[in-house]
Each structure stands twice: as structure tokens, then as C-alpha cells.
Amino acid sequence: MAIVVTLSNHWKYQLGKKLVDVSGDTFKIILMNDSFAFDKDAHATLADVTASPSAELATNYGYTQQDKQLSGGTWAENDTDDKGIRTFDDVSWTASGGSIGPTGSAVIYDDTTADKTVVGCIDYGTDYTIPTGASFQITAPVISIA
């Protein structure tokens, strides 16, 4: 299955109103359980995506809720694809003492905004359970603005 990335409509609104700063804000990424289904209209804020106690994976076995900050990377113009692209460094979790997951998606949010604006969701297209000693990595997560 293919990986699908969907931006939230609230993110687009916040961007248009200049209430987010793609270059300067702090972005975080969280892992969602295997039954989470992203809704680009309803999942506008971190509180929206974590409203169900079981939506985000529980802090356990090498995963800690809402602690993984995206860092590094670059902000560039891509004239070939008519986009602005903010690319971050790879992010990973290593399972220890038990398995992490199952997870079917990850959500990126802007931790700087007052409402913790959800940027969007990366749906892996399949579910993953990370066994003890193994790592789960998302390579170069990207915010793409077309």
C-alpha cells in the first residue's frame, strides 16, 4: 500500500492568516494507534486528534506521548513541482522492554501555536508493531505547500 499524506484544512487556514511560521515554529510528531482515521476537517488541533484516550499510542516501551520534536532539515522552493517544502531530519523510536504499537499513522502538529495546530497526517498504508530492540523510522518528514 502507498503512504498517503493529508494536510488539515485548519493548517491551511492558519498558514493563510500568517498565524504559523513554517521556518521558525516548533513542530512535533506523534504516533497514532492502528484504528485512528484522520479527518482533515475535524482534526484541526492536537486536542482534536487526542480526544479519544486511545488515539495516540500510550507512553510505553520507548514511545513517550508528545515528546518527539522535528528538527533540522531545510526550507526550500521547488520550482519544478511548484511547491514550498520544509524537510526535517529523520525521526525514530526504539522499542525497549516491549513492543511499540501497533501504529497506522503519525500526526505532525505545530507546538508553537496556541491551539497546537495539526499540520497533517502520514498514513503508512499498513500497520506496524515495533518489537523490542527494533527501531521505527520516518525518513525526512516533509511539509509541502503547493
Structure description:
There is one protein chain. 8% of the residues lie in helices and 40% in strands. It has a five-stranded antiparallel sheet with strand order 1-8-7-2-3. The chain has a three-stranded antiparallel sheet with strand order 4-5-10, with no helix packed on it. The protein is mainly beta. The protein is built from two helices and ten strands. The longest helix has 8 residues, at 9-16. Strand 7 and strand 8 form a beta hairpin.
Brief sketch in words of this structure:
The protein has 146 residues and is mainly beta. It has two helices and ten strands.
Name the structural class: mainly beta
Reading side by side through the largest sheet, how are the strands ordered?
1-8-7-2-3
Question: What is the N-to-C succession of helices and strands?
Answer: EHEHEEEEEEEE
What's the overall average pLDDT, rounded?
A: 91
Unreliable runs: none
Tell me the helix content: under 10%
- The 3D shape can be described as globular
Q: How far from one another are the termini?
A: 24 Å
Multimerization state? single chain
Gyration radius, rounded: 15 Å
Major β-sheet, in short? 5 strands, antiparallel
Strand content: 35-45%
Put simply, the count of helices is 2
Number of strand segments: 10
